[in-house]
Amino acid sequence: VQLVESGGGLVQAGGSLRLSCAASGVSFDDYAIGWFRQAPGKEREAVSCVSSHTGVSWYVHSVKGRFSISRDNSKNTLYLQMNSLKPEDTALYYCVRDGGYGLDYWGKGTLVTVSS
Question: What is the CA radius of gyration of the chain?
Answer without folding.
Answer: 13
